[in-house]
Amino acid sequence: MKRKFYLMSALLIGLTALFTSCSDDDDTTVEPIDNTKVVSLTTKNNVKVDQWVYFSFKNNSEVSSVDSTNFQTSLDWDIAFHSRHVRLNGGASGPGTAEALDLEAVDWDSVLTAPTVGYVKDAFVDSILFAGVGEFGPIYIGTYLNPVFETAFTYDITTYPPTYTANKNVYVIKLAEGKFVKIMMTDYYNDMGESGYITFKYKFSKEGSNEF
């Protein structure tokens, strides 16, 4: 009788250990890592005409060494902002290869792969930046920018100053060496309500792939 009792006890202990082990395995499930970065620029981008704030995706930081005198020869930046406008390091704006595509108002998490065609390069656009008021009315000058982002912020000119709102479209930027970045503009104002402090989020594609 005792022998039977000991056998039953051993069996119960073994089963308990088995179920505990399975439970521990379930608890070690690795959750996917979201590498999305959120950036709130600290430099005001609309103080004077054609003043741009330059940013590097690689370093995840603003680039103070780039300005209107050297942006077309520098590879230290990827994207730049002035007022509601955006320029990329590529096309007419710089020596890089960046170009962009607007995927419009889609869910951020639903964009799992970067398209391979349809991208637009930077170009010079005439009479686009407000440069003050002259004898005969408003003065506008041209600049280098990416036309894809021209609707990234809507603006209401019935207010003074105009009110800017991010459309929160998802854009994809094609960089060199098969790299892609998906990006969304999320705000034009900082926490104190001051304009010209762009906030955006972005995410790199996986290494050697167009998948996010």
Describe the protein's architecture and organization.
With 212 residues, this protein is mainly beta. It has one domain (36-204). The chain contains one helix and 13 strands. The strands form four sheets. Strands 1-13-12-11-6 form a five-stranded antiparallel beta sheet, with no helix packed on it. It has a four-stranded antiparallel beta sheet with strand order 3-2-4-5, with no helix packed on it. Strands 7-8 form a two-stranded antiparallel sheet. The longest helix has 26 residues, at 2-27. It is globular and about 55 Å long.
Detail the topology: elements first, then pairings.
Elements: H1 2-27, E1 37-40, E2 53-56, E3 61-62, E4 79-82, E5 85-88, E6 99-102, E7 123-134, E8 137-145, E9 153-156, E10 163-166, E11 171-174, E12 180-189, E13 195-204
How is this structure best summarized?
This protein is mainly beta and 212 residues long. It has one helix spanning 2-27; strands at residues 37-40, 53-56, 61-62, 79-82, 85-88, 99-102, 123-134, 137-145, 153-156, 163-166, 171-174, 180-189, 195-204.
Query: How many angstroms separate the termini?
Result: 64 Å
Q: Strands of the biggest beta sheet: in what spatial order?
A: 1-13-12-11-6
Number of helices: 1
Number of domains: 1
Write the element-wise H/E pattern from the N-terminal end onward: HEEEEEEEEEEEEE
Contiguous low-pLDDT stretches (5 residues minimum) are 1-31
